[in-house]
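Study this protein:
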Amino acid sequence: MAPKPAISDPPPAECGCATQGGGRKAVAVDPGIKDRTTKRLRRIEGQVRGLQKMVEEERYCADILTQVSSVHEALRGVARELLRNHLKHCAATAIRAGDTQADAMYEELVDLVYKHGR
């Protein structure tokens, strides 16, 4: 019986993201999404500082856990916005390009949904 050919991981998605300065950059970012995301992340940063203070002050565990849950949900909201932008711009560009870029993007999207859909 002949050995099975090795299955290799697909190459990283050559999505519509351009490589600049050693890192990938989004094809386009809606200015409204960028503004909202930045504001949300600043708010989340404040929430995390509040959590640190609650721990230092030895606040009631259930109250801290409630705030942790709130931070989780806020981060999920940021992830949804970023995923929406990625699908609208980067993924759409790669899929329209077809062939290798589209296949790599499909793999990237499946991985993103699997990793972040938990």
Q: What stands out?
A: Residues 1-16 have pLDDT under 50 and may be disordered.
